[in-house]
Design a protein that fits this description.
This protein is α/β, with parallel strands linked by helices. 38% of the residues lie in helices and 16% in strands. The chain has 13 helices and 17 strands. A hairpin with a 2-residue loop joins strand 7 (159-160) and strand 8 (163-164). The structure holds pyridoxal-5'-phosphate. Residues 53-55, 79-80, 82-83, 125, 151, 153-154, 175, 177, 188 line the site of pyridoxal-5'-phosphate.
Length: 364
């Protein structure tokens, strides 16, 4: 089976995990601290905090920004569901904006239409490893005084005009789930230059514990959103190889682009101001092709595939609560959800496998 994704784990990464397990020191400790340092250095961020996953990073960023009931937060209508769920979790209202069907990222020209007195924040997503038009989003956010929490869950290493996605807003959030370029199994990294907010995040991720007074005190009803030391150990080595991992994915993406020639399949578009990391290689199928049947057909050819992300307002919880007419309001998000197809992309794919997948796609 040519799998949709596969983590880039080497023997030295496994050895690093084993060594932590043998030490008996499993919970958040030196390895997590090291990983935070590596992330800061790589992303050129002032502060970083590792937590349990990329949903927890977003949740904490909203909490320390004081977003809650009565507030509205702008999110793209097409993303992984977590982007909107965290807004619901803090009691605020996610306000959806349709995407640009070329990039699968939020349609910047539609953002100002939904800004109200209640809008407090925006969560722009760098979908599939492609940076969104973050410069324009920052301009709009400054004008309307919005907190910007960049959801770069899929985009560690992606660049916008030479600068890393996730480093423009008040917070940058990254996921280390196994479908991402580098993984800790489950994990998330949050970066920010705002020191007092990051201090609160460190307290909230660890049961509300503060050591500021020199002894352990509990200053907030916190969460247990900690990353373990063996998870940090797993990803540290991968982080050092991240440029190599991304380059390989970029090379494979070029091969797909050169070899998928079926006119019923739309290839991904990459604006020239971005550097795509290809967390997902996402195709858009012509409506003549039945996407779900194609997933089954590809499986019969030993090729893993899946849809890329959800049209979030079309999902049952959001439909029941807000009853959006997605076809009218979010046609591109709906189209990407219904006709989008993610095909195998990971650094251990061979050129032959890319050719085989391309040939099967060209037969459709
Ligand atoms: C855009 C986006 N945001 C948030 C998340 C949540 O990350 P995690 O699975 O680490 O909680 C994901 C995960 O795939 C994602 O794709």
């Amino acid at each position: 089976m040519i799998s949709l994704s596969k983590p880039s784990i080497k023997k030295e990464d496994i050895d690093a995990v084993v060594s932590v397990l043998q030490s008996g020191m499993l919970v958040q400790g030196k390895e997590v601290e090291d990983l935070e340092g590596i992330a800061r250095l790589f992303l050129q961020a002032k502060h970083s905090a590792c937590v349990a996953n990329g949903t927890a990073t977003l949740h904490l960023a909203l909490l320390v920004s004081g977003i809650g009931p009565g507030d509205e937060v702008i999110v793209p209508a097409f993303s992984y569901i977590a982007t909107a769920n965290v807004v619901e979790l803090v009691g605020a209202k996610p306000v959806f904006v349709d995407i640009d069907i070329e990039t699968y990222n939020i349609n910047v020209s539609k953002i100002e239409e939904v800004i109200t007195q209640k809008t407090k924040a925006i969560i722009p997503v760098h979908e599939f490893g492609l940076a969104c038009d973050i410069e324009s989003i920052m301009q709009i956010s400054k004008k309307h005084n919005l907190v910007v929490i960049e959801d770069a869950a899929c985009a560690l290493g992606a660049k916008y005009k030479g600068r890393f996605a996730g480093t423009f807003g008040d917070f940058g959030s990254y996921s280390l789930h196994p479908r991402k370029a580098i993984t800790s199994g489950e994990g998330g990294i949050l970066i920010s230059d705002v020191s007092d907010k990051m201090e609160k995040i460190r307290i909230l991720r660890n049961h509300g514990i503060s050591l500021a007074s020199g002894k352990m005190d509990f200053v907030a009803p916190g969460y247990n959103y900690r990353m373990t030391d063996f998870q940090a150990a797993l990803v540290k080595g991968q982080f050092k190889r991240i440029n190599e991992i991304i380059s390989r994915r970029q090379k494979l993406a070029e091969l797909y682009k050169a070899n998928i020639t079926n006119s019923k399949i739309k290839l991904p578009f990459v604006p020239d101001y971005t550097e795509h990391t290809w967390q997902t290689f996402h195709l858009l199928l012509d409506k003549k092709l039945k996407r779900d049947a194609i997933i089954t057909k590809l499986k019969e050819c030993n090729i893993g595939s899946n849809y890329g992300a959800q049209c979030i307002p079309a999902m049952t919880y959001y439909q029941k609560k807000y009853n959006y007419n997605c076809a009218d309001f979010f046609p591109n998000a709906l189209l990407a959800y219904e006709q989008g197809l993610a095909i195998p992309m990971h650094d251990s794919l061979s050129e032959e496998e890319i050719m085989y997948v391309s040939i099967e796609l060209n037969k459709l």
